[in-house]
Amino acid sequence: MTRPDDWHLHLRDGAMLNAIAPESARDFGRAIIMPNLLPPIVTSTQALSYKKRIMAALPDGSNFKPLMTLYLNEKTDKNDLSRAHASGLVIAAKLYPAGATTNSDGGVKDFHKLQPILEHMAEIGMPMCVHGEVTDLDVDIFDREAVFIDRILDPMRCRVPDLKVVMEHITTEEGAEYAKSAPGKLAATITTHHLIINRNHILSGGLRPHYYCLPVAKRETHRLALLKAATSGSECYFLGTDSAPHTDALKENACGCAGIFSATNTVSCLAEIFEAAGALDQLENFTSLSGPKFYGLAPNVDKIHLTKGAPITFPEFIKTHLGPVTVFDPGIDLHWQVSN
Ligand code: NCD
Ligand code: ZN
């Protein structure tokens, strides 16, 4: 099938980047690179130098293409944003509500202040990727996505109806429903892990930090709604792995970091669950066709091959100079081998 793209990926920087970039470059053609470094990528100059560091971390001969994003804040420079978009360096801008997730302290507190920037993005056709969770302490963590849609996202989209919006890593039935309400203007990425785990995986039989990510996995009914959406063939849903490496020391911790690292085995995991859902024929739409269509890009021209055989194994962790990073354990046998 057409080589997949990853429409939401964390590559980090420095030693972590160097260790994990090859994991994404193996199966994916392109990826949208999240800007939540410390400090975040807020200007085109920073995006350009980050892109160069990513290119330098790729294996020799790799054709992997990083698609850069800028981290929106209340001071984002409109002209810098448009120039970066026009030049093709930056494909989208990312909206993090302040404090919603890893390295989001510099995110947006007052969404109304973004109005001029969002109007400008709508004019130039630049999509906004949004981490859709409210951060209010009075809202239960399992409800934060649904509340964000009602309180923030829907009113924002009514104020700027032409803005293209990607709801990142949706985790709920409400998210999947809302994402299909404005074809061509609204879409959602879904991660591999949210198609496989529910909240029991995190909490039952012991606390499993390697299944903890944000937005946190919800109950089984929501996982089933996401699976239905991903396997539906509908163009408004596409893959964004949200593969987000943290060292094991930072995950297995009294205050463990949020993030699941799945770059290594994502395509094999997806083939397994799409097959189990009787929807292998929809895998290519989800991983390789619907994403480029939403972003106005052509699909990759090259192909990957998926071959089914005896169960295969992946490394349990990736070695980095900072320490090991555990690879997502789907908890099911994987039979699909990916090759070029
Ligand atoms: C991500 C990270 O570690 O950067 N963590 C996560 O749990 N998904 C940030 C994010 O995308 O929310
Ligand atoms: Zn993410």
Can you characterise this structure?
Strand 2, helix 2 (44-57) and strand 3 (65-71) form a beta-alpha-beta unit. The protein is 34% helix and 16% strand. It is of the alpha/beta class. The strands form three sheets. An eight-stranded parallel β-sheet has the order 1-2-3-4-5-6-7-8. It is built from eleven helices and twelve strands. It has one domain (6-339): Metal-dependent hydrolases (TIM Barrel), CATH 3.20.20. Helix 1 (14-27) packs across helix 2 (44-57). It has helices at residues 14-27, 44-57, 78-86, 115-124, 144-159, 173-179, 199-203, 220-230, 248-251, 266-276, 283-295, and strands spanning 6-9, 30-33, 65-71, 90-95, 128-130, 165-167, 186-190, 237-239, 305-312, 317-318, 325-326, 334-339. The longest helix has 16 residues, at 144-159. The model has no long low-confidence stretch (mean pLDDT 97). The protein binds N-carbamoyl-L-aspartate and zinc ion. N-carbamoyl-L-aspartate (NCD) binds next to loops.
> The CATH topology, please?
TIM Barrel
* Distance linking N and C termini: 10 Å
CATH level 1 class label: Alpha Beta
Strands of the widest sheet, in order across it, are 1-2-3-4-5-6-7-8
